User: What shape does this take?
Amino acid sequence: MTEYLRFLNERLPQFQTEAAYWEDRIGTAHEFHMFLLDNDTKLCFSVVFDGDFKPYIDDFINKGGPWFDSLFSGVVDGYKGMNDPGFLKWFGQFLISAEFFYASYPESTRRDVEKGLRVVNAFEHLLDEAQS
Assistant: This one.
């Protein structure tokens, strides 16, 4: 795992650049975090997503698979890719549900937030034009 974490550290800027593209394809992720722990010997990632787990994990596999495969293939023990029929069982052994989670606006989806931001930006642009 340590070699992988060196690889990850070296490619973090590239992965950071790619994240918006892949997370937008998934469409239900609000936040995605990766942490290097225990002197860079362990990797933890957490995701905040809309709705139920099943639709999220389906999108995660079907729409974000190539990106996650580039992160984990050949470097994380037992990872055979998201198209592997045993992926969900393998992945499931690492899942940990939050004991406590708070969301300011739990009824808002990621798409709702994006739409709201577009409306606010358009309104601000309109106000700026009116002041000119």
